[in-house]
Amino acid sequence: MASPILSARGVGVRYGGVQALSEVDIEVGPGQIVGLIGPNGAGKTTFIDAATGFVRCTGSVEVAGRDVGRMRPHARVRAGLGRTWQAVELFDALTVAENLAVAARRPTAWTTLRELVVNGDAAKPSVGHALEALGIMDLAEAMPGELSEGQRKLVGMARAFVGEPKVVLLDEPAAGLDTDESAELGKQLRRIGDQGTPMLLIDHDINLVFATCDHVVVLEFGRVIATGRPADVRRDPKVVSAYLGSAASDDIKVGEES
Amino acid sequence: METLVLFALLGLGSGAVIAAIALGVVLSWRGSGSINLAAGATVMVAGYVFWALRTGFFGFALQTVPAMILTLLFMALYAVVVELVAVRPLRSASPLAKLVASLGVLLLTQALVLLIFGTSPLNSPSVLTSDVVSVFGVAVPEAQFILAGIVVVLACGLAVVYRFTGFGLATRAASESESSAALAGLSPDAISLGNSVLGHVATGFVGVLAASIVGLSATTLPLLIIPALAAALFARFTSFGIACAVSLLIGIGESLLYQASNESWFPTQNGSAIPGVQQMAEFLLIVIALWWRGSGLPLRGDLVERSLPMVPNQDRLVVRIAPVAIACAVALVVLPSDFRQAVITGLVATILCLSFVVIMGYVGQLSVVQLALAGVAAFTLSHLGAEYGIGFPLGPVLAIATATVLGVLIGASALRVRGVTLVVVTLAAAIAIEQFIFANPDWGGGQTGASVESPTLFGFNLGTDASFRGLDGSQPSPVFGFLALVVTVLLYLFVANLRRGDLGRRMLAVRSNERAAAAAGVNVRAVKIQGFAIASFLASVAGVLYAYDFRTVSANSYDTMTALALVASVYVLGVTLGQGAVLAGFGAAGAVIPLILQTWVLPENRVSIYMQLIIGAGLLIQLRFRPDGLLVSSALKRERRARASRAEKALSVVGAKPQGGV
């Protein structure tokens, strides 16, 4: 495999007395979509928080060979590590286009001084491209409060992509979407991935993850219990029992498509 | 040594009052998630009510015990009223709105007390014994020990209640996560009410006992909130024990400081001890608390549904501003002199209010230090002129730069803390600047005030005493009015323009959600500093213009209660909108609206108190019924229409083109 874009090694997180993550290794290579799945409370979101600097962790995090483990969250974003939120977290006082415009800018001291007098237009080309890539051009002037849950998710993703990240960590982008919308989202993600933006995808929709990802990592109780190609992982008995409990593992196959 | 012990013990009384207020602050935070700026006013209310019942102010005089019982019943009632008016309607509002609501309560109650009982301090009849005990051979009033003992017992009692009773468990659950507590069948409203009544009665009880020791004054008691906030910060707004212990230590420290100021080694100026050391120490204590405890400050698991006021974009600015500016320009020539003066004051106050629009409306932080920064700029201008001969235009530039840098330093000390805690630092800083710098005879104006030369450029006088006069031929000269008008218009355009640009969008992103802003690559600390720098700059410009306007600078114009009233009035009218600042500016002390009121409606010597009453009440009404601010709601409607038409246009363009593959 070519050298990874995102490389997290030995990531561990403690919340008080609870070891939420321990010794987690995850790599995302160029053009890859890696799935991160696991039961509730397995530590999936904690991993994203740790990698993006919102939670203190042990271990190392590298983006395109650059150590970002000591950087504050915004600096990691500027180093190419984008993310979305489970609860989307749009800026509610700004229109959709303005939400994206915030993320599209990489201000320096000099440009900030300029911004005191010169207006930067919210309708930047990169904003238009990101909206177009997710098929939500028509939402540019809407306020976040006026959007449906599915639309909010798309805007949240567009906001993560607009800063031209080297890799994006997506936290449950399909939660709240119906089956068709979810499948459509999978295709969009695949398309964006094929254009060169690698992703780490967390989702509860197992079918979405298995259909979209090149590689899947399974967490349980903060540890990696399985990793590999989707076809192999879905047959792994440890994964089956993590999802359904050990008693059920003999007679039910996880995620088998009808 | 003996005097040291004596003064240390004499500090227990005021330490106890601070502790009682700090306990009230902790209870409010745990019960409803608001930083209660009115906790100090609780002591004032209880003290005055007890005084009135005891001395026959209402026509009948009661003995100590019945008066105390009635006072405590009144405090419970007061707590219920505050809860119903200022807390419950804002249950799901943003932390900033909750904070501003407590500011409304503070302004309203203080104004009411001043109107009912007058402005001079009263002597409260003592409740506790006036016996003395001998400690290490020093006679110390017993009451000091009793008071300290009572707050320690109160703190322990509260800690026990919180640890072992169902009520305490429910409160702790609700402050972890309000929504899950509600799902578990606990009523956040009832929990909040319980804590509120508990807090007000306990604080009021100590307040009554201590009133004869610390004195009964409606101007000083509410400001005891500052040391109490320092103690609450050390306690992370959670621990009753730490809040109580730190408060007592602060009381002891203040008393020792007072004693030290009489010693020969204490730094002096013109033969007397330098003023304001105590307030400076309180400010530094808060900064230390923020750095030490800041990052660990717990975030309450509140259910925030309603966010901050929306921030309308303003189009066609010139068309909107031109009529107002022209009207001002005409008024500056034709009106009688006192009204011309009021217009100028209104213009300058507008600039000051614009600084609140930036820091509160755009960045979502409540800062109250701006008026003090204006004062710093004004005094700097005066001293530069008087002592170094630096006049216009270098003088104001240096003065503005000095005050702006000071402002940024103050703001930087609150950076480690998320949320709305900037108010704590800036409140303490405002008082410290007022007492430590303004009251200092060398750095500030002392008791007399400092004079300022009129600005001149190429021999042309731009000041209020310029030769071109208004129609009635007296000062102030319209020339200075025009100068103020031009500066105000430019800065108004600057603030409105900020909202439309990238920097303004980053500020609003930080205001909405600090974590999401960071994940969008926004440097949250940098944006807060930038916002604070801009706000400080605007305030400093206002300060310089004030100095030229009155041609003398006195500390009275920059006091903290005035600043709080100004903050509140901007919030009432629309904190996210420049127009709000304009109206608030013209309603500020000395500006047009108060002048109209005092000329035709209200008794002259009480106009400022009535204005404070109107603002405080207006704030509570506005938060309840028009949470966006009075002017913002209508501006929003306009903007929604504009956006709809823009979206239509964009769609029609997209539709006209053949759809290409993405």
Concise account of the structure shown:
Chain A: One of its GO terms (cellular component) is plasma membrane. By secondary structure, chain A is α/β, with parallel strands linked by helices. Chain A has 10 helices and 10 strands.
Give a written overview of the molecule.
Chain B: It is a multi-pass membrane protein. Chain B: This is Branched-chain amino acid ABC transporter permease. Chain B: It is found in: Cell membrane. The complex is a heterodimer of chains A (258) and B (662). Chain A has 258 residues and is α/β, with parallel strands linked by helices. Chain A folds into two domains: 173 residues, P-loop containing nucleotide triphosphate hydrolases (Rossmann fold, 3-Layer(aba) Sandwich); 77 residues, no CATH class. Chain A has ten helices and ten strands. Chain A has a six-stranded mixed beta sheet with strand order 6-7-8-3-9-10, with helices on both faces. In chain A, strands 2-1-4-5 form a four-stranded antiparallel beta sheet, with helices on one face. Chain B has two domains: 262 residues, Orthogonal Bundle (ABC transporter involved in vitamin B12 uptake, BtuC), CATH 1.10.3470; 314 residues, ABC transporter involved in vitamin B12 uptake, BtuC (Orthogonal Bundle). Helices cover 69% and strands 3% of the residues of chain B. Chain B has 25 helices and eight strands. In chain B, a hairpin with a 2-residue loop joins strand 3 and strand 4. In chain B, helix 1 runs parallel beside helix 5, helix 9 runs parallel beside helix 11 and helix 18 crosses helix 20. Chain B is globular. The C terminus of chain B is likely disordered. At the A-B interface, helix 2, helix 3 and helix 4 of A face helix 17, helix 18, helix 19, helix 20 and helix 25 of B.
